[in-house]
Write a structure and sequence with these properties.
The chain contains 2 helices and 4 strands. α1 runs antiparallel to α2 (about 90-100). A 4-stranded antiparallel beta sheet has the order 2-1-3-4, with helices on one face. By secondary structure, it is an alpha+beta fold. The protein has helices at about 35-45, 90-100, and strands at about 5-15, 25-30, 65-75, 80-85.
Length: about 110
């Protein structure tokens, strides 16, 4: 469980098949979610056990790997974790990042 109420989740991504491309950051304002969406994202964040994770997962980068920095802001704390494809990070991090990425402007 994370301390405080969720306020914002932000991701930054770089890498991928075409090389080290940095994509613009994407933010999800929690206040913009309906109750169902909030419960879903809050459950994902809680299951990720952010307060037990390292700030950066170890692992050697490899060609085409995607690196993601996930920033979860609450009313009491900010959690930041950086991970990449194949480094053994929890699946919940990918699921949170995927939810935020899907809401980016197109």
């Amino acid at each position: 469980m994370v301390p405080g109420e969720l306020t914002r989740i932000r991701i930054e991504r770089e890498g991928g098949v075409v090389g080290p491309i940095r994509r613009p950051p994407v933010s999800l304002e929690i206040s913009e979610l309906n109750n169902s969406e909030y419960r879903e994202i809050a459950a994902l964040v809680a299951s990720a056990l952010l307060d037990e994770l390292p700030e950066r997962f170890p692992g050697e980068p490899y060609p085409d790997a995607m690196q993601t920095t996930l920033v979860v802001e609450t009313t009491r704390r900010v959690f930041t974790v950086t991970f990449q494809d194949g480094d053994g990070h929890p699946e919940e991090l990918d699921r949170i990042a995927g939810r935020v990425w899907a809401r980016r402007p197109r």
